[in-house]
Every structure is written in structure tokens, then in C-alpha cells.
Amino acid sequence: MEMETKPREKPDSTRWASNAWALLCAIRSQSPLIQCITNFVSMDLMANTLLSAGASPAMIHSVEEIPDFTPHTHALCVNVGTLSPNWLPAMKAAAELACKSGKPWVLDPVAAGASGFRLRACLELVELKPCVIRGNASEIIALSKASVGPTKGVDSSHESIDAVEAAKSLAQASGAIVAVSGAVDIVTDGERVVGAHNGVPMMQRITATGCSVTALIAAFVAVDPVNAFEATASALSIFGVAGEMGMNMAKGPATLRMHLIDSLYGLDEADVLSRVNITSLSR
Ligand SMILES: Nc1ncnc2c1ncn2[C@@H]1O[C@H](COP(=O)(O)OP(=O)(O)OP(=O)(O)O)[C@@H](O)[C@H]1O
Ligand SMILES: Cc1ncsc1CCO
Ligand SMILES: [Mg+2]
């Protein structure tokens, strides 16, 4: 029998899974404070997603409060889902202050291509240096091409895999990590591309699961801001694992919503190590 002379390297998939578990443990022990400026539809599910993961959400959005509050947060999540002109100054002020305070902020460009107003707002926010941009495929394609077009509103009419090139060019142009959710969640820094192969299709039937995973990404980058690429893929995968486990108990979207939150809260090391499925898609 041949003796091994050096320790065998763990395969990539094992390293991704143990890193995801370490980051979830860090969220549970540090309970990072996440400021969320988000749409009215998502506020409840987003706050409950963050709480069940161990983070501390604060849905604070008035421009008057940002100078006092934003510097004390650990990360910021900005979501333009129910955008109106009077909300945009608060989003920009918070993004600017987060950057100035050295805190990561994450952008969710909901329905970016649905109107000129919304697209311009998203492009202005991208100028303010988000650490991560997470959207569905149609949103990332619209933002990357800076084009308004026929859309299904907040839902995607593209597959995530069709948005890989758009995501790479948006990442290169903006300096942000770009994530595209879908059957496979794609994450890129403009060079590297990974896919998180977790989740269940029923998650699309619950409004604001995308918004909520963007906030979860904010919590993951809050505990590991220098490795935003890894943190983003981990958050997407962990949320997908919670969806898979929740689906085992669910009868439809309403019960999946409940069981997803319970599963995220209850995830243990064995669940994470056996289910996290992140692979390289770089060519
Ligand atoms: N076909 C699928 N199979 C498995 N998981 C999926 C599938 N489609 C979406 N998901 C998961 O559902 C979650 C939401 O992704 P989706 O792309 O629907 O976001 P979204 O369109 O921004 O949603 P919303 O705007 O309602 O917040 C993600 O965690 C994603 O991984
Ligand atoms: C349904 C809906 N409309 C605006 S924001 C939102 C939540 C999902 O993006
Ligand atoms: Mg969305």
C-alpha cells in the first residue's frame, strides 16, 4: 500500500460548505445589525429571514435618521421594489454613509428595466459603490445593458444561466460582486463565476424571497466583508438549503414560507455540510 506523503486537499465543494457553516455561526454569535431600506411587500419576510439567521434587522428609512443610525450598522441593504421619488434621497444618503463608514452595502435592483425612472435610480445607486448587487436574471440583464424593455415586472423572464455574461460585465463595470438568483444562483466578481445549486422552484411562488436573500447576503458580508464573493455564494446556498428542508414539510407556498424560516433558524452543521452545493462555473 502506498503511503500518502502530504495531507490530501479537501475538495472545493467541502471547503465551500465548511466556509458557509463558519459564516452562519459568525452571524449567530455576532448578530450583525442590518439596516434595510426596502419595499413594503418584503419588510416582514426580510426582517424574519434576518432574525431566523441570527442577525438583527432594522427597517429604518427616513432620511432624517440616517446620519445618526447608519454609521452604527454592520451592513446596509437597499431595495428599490416600491420606489418613489421621495425614498431615493434616503437610499443614496445611506449608501454614501455606509461607504464612508467602511460598512458594506448591498443593492437589490428590483424590476430595474420596468421604467426609465427606476433604471436611472438603480444606475445612480450603482455609482455609489455597492459591495454586492443581487437580482434575478431579467434585472441583472436590464441593469447591465442600462435598458428599459418589456418586463414581467418584479419577476424574471430569463433563466439565471442566460445572465452570466451580463453579470460579469456589470461586476467589471461597477466593481461589485454580482449575484443572479434562479434555478442556479450565479455569483461573479467579473472573473470567477460560481453556481449555488440549492433551493426549490416553489420559492419563486413566495413574494420577496429574492428580496430576503439579498438581506441575508448583507448579513453574510457583514461578518466577512473582505471575502464578499464567498459570503454572497454562501448566503444564497444557505437560503436555498433552508428552502429545500422547508419544502419537506410544506404543502404549498404559504407553509413553505413558514417552514423556510423555521429551517433557516434550525440549520445545524450536518445539514449545511451535506447540502451546500457550490461549484465553479468558470471556464
Ligand atoms: N427554479 C428554482 N429552483 C430552485 N430555487 C429557485 C428557483 N428559482 C428561484 N429560486 C430561489 O428562490 C429565491 C428567490 O429567487 P428569485 O430569482 O425568484 O428572486 P426575485 O425574482 O428577486 O424574487 P422577489 O422579487 O419576489 O423577491 C432564491 O433563493 C433562488 O435561489
Ligand atoms: C411584488 C412586488 N412589487 C414590488 S416589490 C415586490 C416584492 C417582490 O419583489
Ligand atoms: Mg427581486
Number of strands: 9
The fraction of residues assigned to DSSP E strands is 5-15%
CATH fold-type name: UDP-N-acetylmuramoyl-L-alanine:D-glutamate ligase
What is the name of the CATH superfamily?
Ribokinase
Q: Enumerate the distinct ligands.
A: adenosine-5'-triphosphate, 2-(4-methyl-thiazol-5-yl)-ethanol, magnesium ion
Q: What is the share of helical residues? A: 40-55%
CATH architecture: 3-Layer(aba) Sandwich
Q: Name the structural class.
A: alpha/beta
Q: Uncertain regions: pLDDT < 50 for 5+ in a row?
A: none
- Overall radius of gyration: 18 Å
Question: Separation of termini?
Answer: 36 Å
Overall residue-averaged pLDDT value:
96
Shape: globular
**Oligomeric state of shown chains:** single chain
User: Major sheet: size, sense and barrel closure?
Assistant: 9 strands, mixed
CATH class: Alpha Beta
Number of domains: 1
Main sheet: strand order? 2-1-3-4-5-6-7-8-9
